[in-house]
Design goal:
The complex is a heterodimer of chains A (115) and B (115). Chain A has no helices and eleven strands. Chain A is mainly beta and 115 residues long. In chain A, strands 2, 4, 5, 6, 9, 10 and 11 form a seven-stranded mixed beta sheet that branches. Chain A has a four-stranded antiparallel beta sheet with strand order 1-3-8-7, with no helix packed on it. In chain A, a hairpin with an 8-residue loop joins strand 9 and strand 10. Chain A starts with a strand and ends with a strand. The model of chain A has no long low-confidence stretch (mean pLDDT 90). Chain B is mainly beta. The N and C termini of chain B lie far apart (41 Å). Classes of the chains: A mainly beta (115), B mainly beta (115). Chains A and B meet through strand 4, strand 5 and strand 9 of A and strand 6, strand 10 and strand 11 of B.
């Protein structure tokens, strides 16, 4: 859905570098989820944020990974000192507060390749 | 912990025929939602159909319908009159935790459509 923008679409990083992935929700959507998809796997939940707050980060590795969703601007997933095992597709999903249909809108994902 | 299992890594169907994709899940919750998502090669996650657990009636969206068996914890997707554009990965997903719970995905089924 073009309404949820993720960039970059592809990102190549050398081991040890930092990766910053961006997600801009649709207008009026104030809830953001980040998911990771390893090759041949389904999506795995990482973190759930509302504006300026982390609500649930139970799926995110304790080290090297962080996420934010500032009052202004996109949500950022940051991976420090990347390793080859971080290579995956990273998706964000959003939905509007109090929507009755519980539908999530996904971005097109960022494919991170660590070389 | 909630889990979602898709036992068919790959399926194939002839164009215009009908195919059923299987999904089972495990939960102790009584209020939850189930989804089928389609992921074509573009990587975009597209919501196909959604089912509320409290509804006995099976959801239907045009050529897509589900067979929801709550007691058996089964949620299969039937695609009628298959089209070449239906070829994709299909993921079954479960959501808990009220309106803000994250999605739990199965590993997916790769559907091929033969002309």
């Amino acid at each position: 859905n073009a309404g949820v923008m993720q960039n970059p679409r592809h990102l190549v990083r050398r081991r040890g570098q930092e990766a910053r992935l961006r997600c801009s929700p649709m207008k009026g959507h104030s809830h953001v989820y980040w998911y990771r998809q390893l090759p041949e796997e389904g999506l795995k939940f990482m973190v759930y944020l509302q504006k300026e707050n982390i609500i649930d980060e139970s799926g995110m590795p304790k080290e090297r990974f962080s996420a934010e969703f500032p009052k202004e601007g996109p949500s950022i997933l940051r991976i420090q000192q990347v390793v080859r095992g971080d290579s995956a597709a990273y998706f964000c999903a959003t939905y509007r507060s109090l929507t009755p249909d519980y539908g999530y809108t996904f971005g097109s994902g960022t494919r991170l390749t660590v070389v | 912990a909630q889990t979602v299992t898709q036992s068919q890594p790959e399926m194939s169907v002839q164009e215009a025929e009908t195919v059923t994709l299987s999904c089972t899940y495990d939960t102790s919750e009584s209020d939850y939602y189930l989804f089928w998502y389609k992921q074509p090669p573009s990587r975009q996650m597209i919501l196909v159909i959604r089912q509320e657990a409290y509804k006995q009636q099976n959801a239907t969206e045009n050529r897509f319908s589900v067979n929801f068996q709550k007691a058996a914890k089964s949620f299969s997707l039937k695609i009628s009159d298959s089209q070449l554009g239906d070829a994709a990965m299909y993921f079954c997903a479960y959501k808990y935790g009220g309106s803000q719970g994250n999605l739990i995905f199965g590993k997916g089924t790769k559907l091929s459509v033969k002309p």
